[in-house]
Design a protein that fits this description.
By secondary structure, this protein is α+β, with helices and mostly antiparallel strands. The termini are far apart.
Length: about 1800
């Protein structure tokens, strides 16, 4: 069924119920969506029977406007692919209908009939995800593109039911319904990753938020709790909850923490009923999530993974959790075991074996499953990432059928596609190692063949090569090219008579390997004589075509081969166009198939070729387009400007604007590095070709030709196209593949975005000038479905496409009805098999990926031939050398046989010394090479020997040495001590959780630093205000007498100051030693603590209410330390005993050697004695092997040689007996060595005996043969015999005594036995400690947690306490500051009162000025780090302050309602006093502001203190609770320690627990106590009684002393008071007031004062001189003033006369106006009266001003200013007169007012004159 028919059927069923256009109602977020009013929701609810029209929604082809291209140019026929790599790309609508995504299409596949129905993407940007409604009545299609929509279709009508808008920006990655299907959850992909919950029936967004900032694979609702969701994806899993807040419903997410587990991508998960979640992992184990943390990792027994590779749990059914993995196995696990799984203490893994298991098949990688919609069904449909869809029965019973593969497709990107030249068949290959052949007319797959490697290129041989059209050439990723024959097996005559299955079959005809890298292109020459293959190894190989393809040779190209294009028949020469991915294009001539094959290599260096390397011109094209655009705009503006010039009068401005616009910079020339990839190309004419580039250069087809200059290096050359053709809308969407229809009237392009683009062309248009209008349709996936292959069928009725998304589409150029009528058949014709094919043997295939290529094999044969020749030459040389060596040896022998005077010397035989030197160098070089070759083996042997020595020799610090007595059988052995190992590193590094007291010092220091009071700057300001600094010139020189007087005063003051400081230090020391009132003696405190610990109700450790003291609490660290200490003591004792035994052994060795020496002396003595006088010597002791065990490891070269001989003599044995044989050899070698040593000792002992016997026999014969001896001789012999007998007895006695003494030393064994007893007790103690350690380890973790908790509480409490103390100190400082401010206010008020003096008439006015409140702008200190924000409380406080200020301001009014004017000094008031009052007021206001700030700070500190006090109480309670918990743990630990059994050996006399006169059998209630401790306790009782009596006596003495001290203190206080009164009286008599004597004593000569006095004298002299000068100037100015005054007086006289005349005129006017009514007269009288009052006030004011000015004149006159004398003050200024605007003439009232002003002015002037 075609897509159009499907669309029409859907459109016919659709109901037009859409009433109005709707806006996007789902764009609001969760808060806005839940705050809408109910009436609005009711009005917006969509009717349940509303549907959309599919025809108006689905995407359509894009056609160039105004073109005659029909919309239905191509009709979708069928899809043969499946995007198996897409997640969740399989859903089930009913028991027979599956849906999945294929690019821009949604496929509805009928499982039984295999029919397909299609729904196109509505956006044209592709489909992101799909899902089905739980009721199977709807399914969801979530699309991709710009602002994609979610479309919900009704099933089975396929009508669009709802459209959800605005859920994401680019694409949806997953959608899913909740359990009842009322809500839909969607999650977007990059860049927003938005998680959205929809009320899909109303097309509204319920909740929306960003899921995470990485890819999300899946999101789903919990089937057990509708308010919970889970999402997972790249290295994360997140748990969501729909929570109700005061603003509405919100999504709250909790990210899962992997903890110690490695982070993994989570593809799937299952939610359990109790809220836990089971997820998969990359390594095949299951992760059980509890909360947001991993509770346990589930694996199989022995640590094996649950699955091999990625695992996904998918269902929870019948008490078992179902999982599948990428290993193709489905397993069921016990749910109860998983739900209650918990890890042991050693690891976080839980081992579990599956209950059921089903193996799907080999090379199966399951990625998603969907369950059948039939209730209680066990059928599942599974998606295989290897390109298949399976049907599974997971009932796990004995009758369960095997898995059934319903459909099989290519997996991954399609690597090759071609069509048959004779039938409607196509062949495809992919990296899934399969080659498939399809009948696209019958819409079915014909056959599939699988190989060991993935296919990368494919071509269908033309009819010139194979007449039947059944030959395929396929290239593979290992470089192998296979020729496959396609035939119909039904027509094959089989001898067996069995009919083969299938309609087609592929048979391997030939396999050869021309390349060492993937084959990327194959192409037949236009005549079918040569096959060319290209590869990514930058080679192109040529083969002759025939029954067997033979290699011709290969050429190398500059880059990996992208495509091969043979020249068409229209070209004169037969050439091959090679397109490389790097942008190189190479054209080579067709090689001669009949040329002789070279012997050494297949490379064809002489083959003519031309090279072209593409150089980017896109930036230049864009630049030229920009220039043309600007030129067009410029011309247009020029015309407009010319038009405006006729109307405008300012052409210069327009010229400036045009020049400014022309200054814009043009786009720069850009050459991409690395170059853009080359995608495809084809010939246009001979030597010319078109190229389609990717990357930066996309958007154009470039017309290129080969350059005439081909001498440059192909890698370095740069060639530019000579022409180009722009491709519309292809800047980011280049053309990936191009093909033409057979008549070249259609140009079909496969685009990078997966769309098909068709250009109609004019006939014979090789330059593509008619390539303008196009038809484009999005087919494959827009993101990764690059359309790499597009082909037309042999009859141009079909178009076939294949993309990187694994989809294969077939389109027909005719409607389906016309197509069926025109073709007259429903299936393609499969070629018949060749004659005799059934008798041919199968061709040999190349299965080894590492097999040699053709060229490599030839090179190897050539190398083998050369190597054989070299070996023959070497063997001949060696034979010749052997003959020469034999001849030289013969000559040497002849030379040696000659006489010496004739014989040639060795130096003469050497022809040249350099030969020997060269030989020595060669030998040394070979030795170095051999050592270098054997270096690794030598190092390995050394390391092995070192390990053996460390294990067997160095692992023991001392070996067991046994010392045997000489005369007895007693023996003593040393202890076997292993090598001492360092204590555990963790013991040194581990430390108990730090106590909070560690931070105490830092806290105290910090508090101390903070508590230091800052220096009060207010005092400095006061000093500056009250006593402003007077600037004085520097360099005032004092006289000698003044300097001497100052020096003596300074020395005297310094002595007094030193004396005072010394006395002050003594006082401070005394006060420091003075104890506080509540102070206690530290010795008493320590004694009390010791008494509390040692005296009182002491409980046994076994008591239930026993509390373990802190210093006795045991933990793992202390216990290990105790064990190490015990082990050290044991080792110390053993080492000491071993040392004594070794000393004893060494003494025996020395004794044995001494005895042997004495035995030799004895033998010498006995030589001269007769036999009957010989005393038998004692048996000489020997050193036994166990006494010197270190000699066993000593060896010599002879020993090693003997071991080698024994090893060679050993008969060959199996490998299993090798170790036993080696041990036997060592024992045999040891016995032989011992035998040799014994023989040596016997030989040493026997030698002197033989010599002695020989001597004695000689003497006897001498005596017998001699003459009789004389008496003297006999006497001498007798004397000698006596001496010898004495020497013999002495030696024997000495030997006996030394042996007895040594045996006496061996009594050391008794001490060793005692030590063994002690060590055994220590071992028992160590065992006991180890048991306690194991017990402590169990409890230690809990104790550490509680201790950390307690430490945290204590630390928090200490920090709160420190903060509280700090705040209290700051608060105390603030209070002191407030008190200081109050004192300063009082001092300020006192200073103000003092400045007023007594009986000041302006006291009230100045007091009001001083106390007046003024609104002042607060000074704000602004810094870079402070924020300009204030709290509302502070704002309200400020408002209140301003209100208060306003009230005070309103109160500062005079009683008459006139405001107090403090800006003008009142007349008669001292201006200096007034200014001082203003300054004091400013200081008062500053102090008030400072006081307010200090109070605010104090209040804030009080609030902080209250908060901290409350917090301290809560922390104390939590600390006490933590201490209680820790105490319980310690008590429990102590109880467990008490339960351990301790072994203590006792003697009977030590047991004093007797019952009825006998020791009971049960000693459980006994108490083990040290006798010394018992005696100490008894003695302590007597000591305490004596101490009690002593303390009573001391208490009585202390009480008496206390009474005496109190009495003495009272007397001293009275005496001090008397002395103070006497001192005060003396000061009053001498100074008249109380003074500070210390300050008085330390007063030294004030140099500053002396300098100021000197400066004063100088200044007075200068001032007197200056006053004289100013007096002269004043006199001159006075004279000038007199002149001016005279002129003014004359003017006043004339003015007076004028006023008199005016008054007469006014009198006359008044007479005339008497007739006016009474009312007018009364009114004028009142007005005059008011005017009089006003003028009187004005006169008073001017009088005050005159007084003030006179005072100011006096002040200025004293300072030397040019002013009038006080006797003649200036006239005050006239007040402005109000002139009526109605009449220009003055009225009577104005005249009277003017006369009064003149009189007022005359009166003060007259007084002043008088």
């Amino acid at each position: 069924m075609s897509e159009e028919n499907t669309a029409n059927s859907v459109g016919d069923q659709a109901e037009v119920t859409k009433t109005a256009s709707r806006e996007n109602t789902a764009e609001c977020d969760s808060e806005n969506s839940l705050t809408q009013q109910e009436d609005e929701e009711g009005s917006r609810r969509l009717p349940a029977d509303m549907y959309y029209k599919y025809e108006e929604l689905h995407s359509r082809p894009s056609i160039t406007p105004d073109s005659e291209i029909p919309e239905n140019l191509l009709h979708l026929s069928h899809t043969f692919g499946y995007d198996s790599g897409r997640r969740a790309n399989l859903q089930l609508l009913d028991d027979r209908t599956l849906i999945f995504i294929a690019g821009n299409l949604l496929i509805l596949l009928d499982v039984s009939t295999k029919e397909q129905r299609y729904l196109r993407s509505c956006s044209g940007g592709g489909i992101g995800s799909i899902t089905a409604h739980p009721s199977r009545q709807y399914f969801v299609v979530a699309e991709k593109g710009n602002q994609p929509n979610i479309i919900i279709y009704e099933y089975p009508s396929l009508r669009p039911y709802r459209i959800l808008r605005g859920g994401t920006e680019r694409a949806y990655s997953f959608v899913d319904f909740n359990r009842d299907g009322s809500l839909l959850a969607s999650v977007g992909s990059a860049p927003d990753y938005m998680l959205t919950l929809w009320d899909w029936r109303q097309e509204e967004v319920m909740l929306s938020c960003k899921a995470i900032s990485q890819e999300v694979y899946r999101v789903s609702f919990s089937p057990y709790n509708p308010e919970l969701l889970t999402s997972s994806g790249s290295a994360h899993i997140k748990f969501w909850k729909m929570a109700s807040t005061f603003t509405g419903l919100k999504l709250q997410g909790l990210i899962g923490h992997f903890g110690k587990t490695t982070a993994t991508d989570i593809e799937g998960y299952v939610e359990l009923p109790d809220g836990k979640v089971v997820s998969g992992s990359d390594w095949g184990n299951l992760l059980l999530w509890d909360g947001n943390a991993i509770k346990v990792e589930i694996c199989r027994k022995g640590g094996r993974s649950c699955h091999t590779g990625i695992v996904q749990p998918f269902a929870l059914e019948d008490g078992q959790l179902m999982t599948f993995g990428s290993d193709g196995v489905v397993r069921g696990w016990d749910f109860e075991s998983i739900d209650t799984a918990d890890s042991n203490s050693d690891s976080s893994k839980f081992e579990l074996e599956p209950m059921n298991e089903m193996v799907i098949g080999h090379n199966v990688r399951l990625s998603s499953v969907v369950k059948s919609s039939t209730p209680d069904s066990f059928l599942w449909f599974a998606k295989d990432s290897s390109g298949a869809i399976w049907k599974l029965d997971l009932s796990f019973t004995y009758t369960t059928p095997d898995p059934e593969c319903l459909f099989c497709f290519h997996a991954g990107a399609i690597q090759g596609l071609d069509v048959s030249r004779k039938s409607h068949m196509m062949a495809t290959t992919a990296l899934d190692r399969s080659v498939k052949v399809f009948d696209f007319l019958a819409k079915r797959e014909l056959t599939t063949s699988r190989f060991n490697q993935g296919g990368t290129a494919l071509s269908w041989a033309p009819t010139l090569v194979n007449q039947s059209g059944g030959l395929l050439v396929t290239g593979f990723e290992d470089g192998v090219v296979r020729l496959l024959e396609l035939y119909d097996p039904q027509r094959l005559h089989v001898v067996t008579g069995r009919s083969p299955k299938g309609d087609a079959k592929l048979r391997l005809k030939q396999a050869f390997k021309p390349h060492n890298a993937p084959v990327t292109a194959v192409a037949y020459e236009r005549n079918g004589d040569i096959l060319a293959t290209g590869s990514s190894d930058c080679t192109v190989f040529f083969f002759t075509v025939g029954e067997k393809y033979n290699p011709i040779g290969f050429v190398r190209v500059p880059g990996p081969v992208q495509a091969l294009e043979w020249s068409p028949h229209s070209h004169n020469e037969n050439r091959l166009l090679i397109l490389c991915q790097s942008g190189h294009v190479v054209e080579v001539h067709s090689p001669d198939p009949e040329a002789q094959t070279p012997t050494k290599t297949f490379q064809l260096p002489e083959l003519p070729s031309r090279c072209f390397r593409f150089r980017s011109i896109k930036s230049r094209i864009k630049r030229e387009e920009e220039i043309a655009r600007r030129q067009a705009i410029k011309e247009k503006r020029e015309k407009e400007r010319e038009k405006r010039l006729k109307e405008s009068k300012q052409p210069d401005l327009e010229l400036e604007e045009e020049e400014e616009e022309e200054e814009e910079e043009l786009p720069a020339i850009y050459i991409p590095d690395p170059p853009s990839p080359l995608y495809c190309g084809f010939y246009s004419q001979s030597g010319q070709f078109w190229l389609s580039m990717g990357g930066f250069d996309s958007g154009f087809l470039y017309h290129c030709k080969f350059s005439e200059q081909q001498d440059e290096d192909p890698v370095q050359r740069q060639d530019e196209p000579f022409d180009f053709l722009p491709v519309q809308n292809a800047d980011n969407n280049p053309i990936r593949s191009i093909t033409f229809s057979s008549n070249r009237q259609l140009l079909l392009c496969g685009m990078h975005s997966g769309s098909i683009r068709v250009y109609p062309l004019q006939p014979s248009d090789h330059n593509l000038t008619s390539m303008q209008a196009y038809w484009e349709l999005s087919v494959h996936d827009n993101h990764y479905g690059h359309l790499r292959y597009i082909r037309c069928s042999h009859d141009d009725h079909f178009v076939l496409t294949a993309g990187d998304d694994g989809n294969i589409f077939s389109f027909s150029l005719l409607p389906p009805e016309e197509l069926q009528k025109g073709l007259q058949r429903k299936r393609a014709k499969v070629p018949s098999p060749r004659v005799g094919l059934e008798n041919e043997a199968l061709a040999q295939d190349i299965e080894d990926p590492a097999a040699y290529s053709i060229e490599t094999a030839k090179q190897k044969l050539e190398k083998d031939r050369l190597r054989r020749e070299v070996d023959l030459k070497i063997s001949a040389k060696r034979k010749k050398l052997v003959e020469l060596q034999k001849k030289f040896k013969h000559l040497l022998n002849d030379n040696q046989s000659l006489p010496e005077h004739v014989r040639l010397k060795s130096a003469e035989l050497q022809l040249d010394q350099r030969f020997n030197e060269q030989a020595e160098k060669v030998k040394a070089q070979r030795v170095r090479e051999v050592r270098k070759q054997l270096g690794w083996e030598m190092e390995r042997c050394c390391i092995a020997l070192k390990k053996l020595q460390d294990w067997f020799k160095d692992s023991l610090e001392s070996k067991v040495v046994t010392v045997v007595a000489i005369c007895t059988n007693h023996r003593i052995s040393s202890y076997r001590l292993p090598a001492l190992t360092e204590p555990s590193a963790w013991l040194r590094q581990q430390s108990r959780p730090g106590r909070p007291d560690e931070d105490g010092a830092a806290t105290q220091e910090r508090r101390r630093s903070r508590a230091e009071p800052a220096k009060d700057s207010g005092d400095l300001e006061d000093d500056k205000v009250l006593r402003p600094l007077m600037a004085r010139p520097a360099g005032i020189k004092l006289g000698d007498r003044q300097v001497e007087r100052l020096r003596k005063a300074a020395e005297k003051a310094e002595q007094a100051r030193a004396k005072i400081e010394k006395r002050q230090q003594e006082w401070e020391q005394l006060y420091a030693e003075k104890p506080k009132e509540n102070c206690e003696d530290p010795q008493d405190v320590q004694a009390i603590c010791e008494a509390k610990e040692n005296i009182g109700d002491l409980k046994l450790k076994s008591a239930k209410d026993f509390t373990v003291p802190k210093h006795l609490r045991m933990n793992t660290e202390r216990k290990i330390t105790e064990m190490i200490a015990l082990e050290g003591k044991i080792r110390e004792k053993q080492t000491e005993m071993n040392g004594r035994i070794m000393t004893l052994r060494d003494s025996k060795v020395r004794l044995v050697s001494q005895l042997h020496a004495q035995a030799q002396q004895l033998q010498k003595v006995q030589q001269y004695l007769a036999d009957h006088l010989h005393s038998p010597p004692p048996a000489l002791p020997t050193i036994l092997p166990e006494e010197t065990p270190e000699k066993r490891l000593r060896y010599s070269r002879a020993t090693l040689e003997r071991y080698r001989v024994l090893r060679e003599q050993r008969p060959p044995t199996v490998e299993q007996e090798e170790q036993e044989g080696a041990a036997g050899l060592l024992e045999q070698l040891e016995k032989e060595m011992e035998g040799e040593e014994e023989e040596e000792e016997r030989g040493e002992e026997g030698t002197p005996c033989l010599s002695t016997s020989s001597v004695t026999t000689e003497e006897e014969t001498a005596v017998e043969e001699g003459v009789e001896l004389s008496e003297l001789e006999e006497e001498l012999l007798m004397e000698k015999e006596i001496k010898l007998l004495y020497m013999q007895d002495s030696l024997l006695e000495e030997m006996e005594s030394s042996m007895c003494q040594f045996d006496a030393k061996l009594l050391l064994r008794h001490q060793k036995l005692h030590l063994d007893w002690q060590l055994k007790l220590a071992d028992l103690r160590q065992l006991m400690l180890y048991q306690e350690l194991l017990l402590l380890k169990e409890v230690d973790r809990r104790e550490e947690i509680l201790q950390e908790k307690l430490n945290a509480r204590m630390k928090e409490e200490n920090s709160i306490t420190s903060k509280l103390e700090e705040y209290n100190e700051q608060l105390e400082l603030k209070r002191r500051d407030i008190a200081k401010v109050h004192e300063r206010e009082k001092a300020l008020a006192a200073a103000f009162q003092a400045s007023l003096g007594e009986d000041n008439k302006f006291e009230e006015f100045l007091t009001k000025v001083f106390k007046k409140r003024i609104k002042r702008v607060k000074k704000k200190e602004q810094t870079e780090n402070e924020e300009e924000e204030e709290d509302s409380d502070e704002d309200s406080d400020e408002d209140d302050d301003w209100d208060d200020d306003d009230d005070d301001y309103e109160s500062d009014m005079e009683e008459g309602g006139v405001p107090l004017d403090d800006s003008v000094c009142p007349p008669g008031c001292d201006p200096q006093l007034f200014e001082n009052t203003l300054q004091l007021r400013e200081r008062r206001l500053d102090l008030e502001e400072l006081l307010v700030e200090e109070k605010k700070s104090a209040d804030a500190l009080e609030k902080e203190c209250d908060t901290l006090i409350k917090k301290e109480k809560s922390v104390k309670s939590s600390r006490k609770a933590a201490e209680g918990d820790l105490e319980l743990v310690n008590r429990e630990k102590q109880q467990k320690l008490n339960e351990l059994d301790m072994v203590i050996p006792f003697r009977l006399h030590q047991i004093e627990f007797v019952v009825n006169g006998s020791v009971p059998s049960d000693l459980t209630p006994t108490l083990v106590l040290n006798r010394m401790e018992l005696s100490r306790l008894q003695e302590r009782v007597m000591e305490l009684q004596a101490e009690k009596t002593q303390q009573k006596d001391l208490s009585c003495q202390a009480r008496q002393q206390h009474v005496r001290l109190v009495h003495d203190r009272k007397e001293m206080n009275v005496e001090i008071q008397v002395l103070e009164n006497q001192c005060n009286q003396l000061m009053m008599m001498k100074f008249g007031r109380l003074v500070d004597l210390e300050a008085l004593q330390t007063l030294s000569g004030n140099r500053t004062l002396e300098e100021l006095k000197q400066e004063k004298l100088l200044q007075e002299a200068a001032n007197a001189k200056e006053i004289k000068q100013w007096d002269a100037k004043v006199e001159e100015e006075h004279q000038a003033l007199m002149e001016v005054t005279k002129c003014n007086t004359e003017c006043l006289l004339s003015l007076t006369m004028l006023f008199d005349e005016k008054s007469e005129l006014e009198h006359k006017l008044n007479a005339r106006q008497k007739k006016i009514g009474r009312q007018l007269q009364d009114f004028s009288r009142r007005a005059d009266q008011e005017e009089i009052w006003r003028l009187q006030e004005f006169v008073k004011t001017q009088s005050h001003q005159i007084e003030a000015l006179s005072r100011e004149i006096d002040l200025l006159s004293r300072k030397g200013g040019h002013v009038l004398p006080t006797s003649q003050p200036p006239l005050p200024p006239l007040a402005p007169l109000s002139t009526p605007q109605t009449t220009p003439t003055p009225s009577n009232q104005d005249q009277r007012r003017l006369s009064k002003q003149l009189k007022a002015q005359k009166s003060p002037s007259g007084q002043g004159a008088n």
